[in-house]
Amino acid sequence: MAALDLFGRRWALRILWELRAGPLGARALLARCEGLSSSVLYQRLRELVASGIIAPSADGYELTPLGTALRDALRPLDEWASVWAKEQERDDQQPTET
């Protein structure tokens, strides 16, 4: 499976994002991802485990060394997204011309 195909699947990046600070169980992931169904969660977890990005652990699921490298690779995108969000917020606060 190509990486972009995997990451483009609904909830895949969000699950990886939630695992960035350490292992989480399935219930914790469901609680953090409002709207995520348990069937989709378990499907994504299977795919991410099969890809070597996450692994089951005593505490649930955690990033593997490959997953940690991905987290580090996504850090510039996260920084860009923070700047973009601030600009969007600033633009939303600008008065509209009439």
Structure overview:
With 98 residues, the protein is mainly α. The protein has one domain: Arc Repressor Mutant, subunit A (Orthogonal Bundle). It contains 5 helices and 2 strands; from the N terminus they run ααααββα. It has helices spanning 3-7, 12-18, 26-32, 38-50, 65-93, and strands spanning 54-57, 60-63. Strands 1-2 form a two-stranded antiparallel sheet. Strand 1 (54-57) and strand 2 form a beta hairpin.
Strand content: 5-15%
Q: Mind describing the biggest β-sheet?
A: 2 strands, antiparallel
Shape: elongated
SSE topology string:
HHHHEEH
CATH class: Mainly Alpha
Structural class: mainly alpha
Mean pLDDT: 92
DSSP strand count: 2
Number of structural domains = 1
GO molecular function, one term: DNA binding
Protein name: Transcriptional regulator
Keywords: DNA-binding, Transcription, Transcription regulation
Domain HTH hxlR-type: 1-89
Helix/strand layout:
Blueprint: H1 3-7, H2 12-18, H3 26-32, H4 38-50, E1 54-57, E2 60-63, H5 65-93
Antiparallel strand pairs: 1-2
List the keywords.
98 residues; mainly alpha; elongated; Arc Repressor Mutant, subunit A
Short description:
With 98 residues, the chain is mostly helical. The chain has one domain (3-93): Arc Repressor Mutant, subunit A.
